[in-house]
């Protein structure tokens, strides 16, 4: 085994009775030590961490870099970032076993993401690990198998190695929950990193990840990408499989939640989509239309017709963001594209009745059931900082 991770946990802020989950419920989360066994003692990770994704993949495929050195570099950096801003929820210890399996592949069998360390937002199911959504009810209930997207990423050679923090229930633009605590924005520690894919956003901002997967319903990839100065893509609904992604509200279909990649640059998002939109995706989830990445459209220089709005009429952008929209519009026009301003009709009705009403069509009953831990629950009497018998139903949202 080329490295070993030792986890130290602090005392629980509030003990979760009868579940054995105390070691993972704390006001901070984990203090982490990494001990490298068999790695180069003089290895400088900076040249590895500074490589863009496409060059990293090429060096791995050409065996100019070892799989161990790349994974060790990113794991060590992710732990450093976590100690600063509290962004990780789980270490996927099977990554070392997967790495050894990748080393046995022939060059012709290596996928598009061969050897790439990848981070996953908390709700992505990984066999043997919890997907909590920040809810105590989901603690100590490890997934029986990997989700479809995790399987496809592994088939393409990616190595998931950590899961990242989220807000309780995922329905928030923040990044805090009673289990793993508050994630900070590394660019300004008193500010939020955004959510709900906030743990992913801060890792990219600080160099602790080169590629990751978030989810997005109403901005959960786009908001942390904006707050942390990184890139993310909310894919079209049902373009990628959502099978094996945990949710606080099962069966909610009115407002589609989607999976999407996050990275430091757009080119990395493109490479990830090329890998995901494969035959494996359709084979593992036949509900996903078999439509591979459309290279001819991406590579085309044909002018596009692009619509934009500087404000949606419901929330106002900051002056800097409005200025960025105008600058982007001018740059697109200079590149030969047709840019058309538009306004969104009936925005207040759409937000209140279609978006919020669609998400909580049952009046929030399902969500309250997850948040409120009653005295007779097999999970215990409450979780520090969240909903419990002393705070009343729904106070933890």
UniProtKB/TrEMBL annotation:
It is an enzyme of class 3 (hydrolase). It catalyses: N-(9Z-octadecenoyl) ethanolamine + H2O = ethanolamine + (9Z)-octadecenoate; N-(5Z,8Z,11Z,14Z-eicosatetraenoyl)-L-serine + H2O = (5Z,8Z,11Z,14Z)-eicosatetraenoate + L-serine; (9Z,12Z,15Z)-octadecatrienamide + H2O = (9Z,12Z,15Z)-octadecatrienoate + NH4(+); tetradecamide + H2O = tetradecanoate + NH4(+). InterPro entries: Amidase_dom, AS_sf, Endocannabinoid_amidase. Keywords: Coiled coil, Hydrolase, Lipid degradation, Lipid metabolism, Phosphoprotein. Residues 85-112 form a coiled coil. The keyword Phosphoprotein applies. GO terms for molecular function: amidase activity; fatty acid amide hydrolase activity. Transmembrane segments: none annotated. The keyword Transmembrane helix does not apply. One of its GO terms (biological process) is fatty acid catabolic process. Its EC number is 3.5.1.99. It holds the Pfam family Amidase. Residues 71-377 form the Amidase domain. Belongs to the amidase family. This is Fatty-acid amide hydrolase 1. It comes from Canis lupus dingo. The gene is FAAH.
């Amino acid at each position: 085994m080329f490295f070993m991770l030792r986890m130290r946990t602090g005392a629980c802020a509030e003990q979760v009775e009868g579940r054995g989950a105390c070691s993972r419920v704390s006001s901070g989360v984990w203090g982490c030590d990494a001990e490298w066994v068999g790695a180069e003692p003089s290895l400088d990770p900076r040249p590895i961490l500074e490589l863009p994704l496409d060059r990293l993949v090429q060096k791995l495929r050409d065996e100019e870099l070892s799989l161990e050195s790349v994974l060790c570099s990113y794991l060590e950096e992710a732990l450093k970032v976590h100690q600063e801003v509290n962004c990780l929820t789980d270490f996927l210890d099977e990554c070392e076993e997967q790495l050894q399996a990748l080393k046995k592949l022939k060059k012709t069998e290596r996928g598009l993401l061969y050897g790439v360390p990848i981070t996953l937002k908390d709700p992505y199911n990984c066999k043997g690990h919890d997907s909590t959504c920040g809810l105590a009810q989901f603690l100590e209930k490890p997934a029986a198998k990997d989700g479809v997207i995790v399987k496809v990423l592994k088939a393409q050679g990616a190595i998931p190695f950590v899961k990242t923090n989220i807000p309780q229930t995922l329905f928030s633009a923040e990044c805090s929950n009673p289990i793993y605590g508050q994630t900070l924005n590394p660019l300004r520690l008193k500010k939020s990193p955004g959510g709900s894919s906030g743990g992913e956003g801060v890792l990219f901002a600080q160099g602790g990840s080169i590629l990751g997967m978030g989810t997005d319903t109403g901005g959960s990839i786009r908001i942390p990408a904006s707050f942390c100065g990184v890139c993310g893509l909310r894919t079209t609904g049902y373009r990628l499989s959502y099978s094996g992604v945990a949710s606080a509200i099962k069966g909610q279909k009115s407002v589609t939640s989607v999976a999407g990649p996050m990275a430091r640059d757009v080119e990395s998002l493109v490479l990830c989509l090329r890998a995901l939109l494969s035959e494996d995706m359709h084979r593992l989830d036949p509900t996903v239309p078999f439509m591979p990445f459309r290279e001819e459209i991406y590579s085309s220089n044909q002018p596009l017709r692009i619509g934009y709005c500087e404000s949606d009429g419901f929330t106002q952008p900051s002056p800097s963001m409005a200025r960025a929209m105008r600058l982007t519009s001018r740059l697109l026009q200079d590149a030969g594209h047709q840019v058309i301003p538009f306004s969104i009709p009936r925005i207040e009705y759409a937000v209140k009745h279609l978006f919020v009403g669609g998400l909580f069509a049952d009046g929030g009953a399902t969500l309250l059931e997850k948040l409120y831990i009653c005295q007779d629950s097999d999970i215990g009497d409450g979780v520090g900082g969240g909903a419990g018998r002393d705070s009343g139903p729904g106070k933890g949202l």
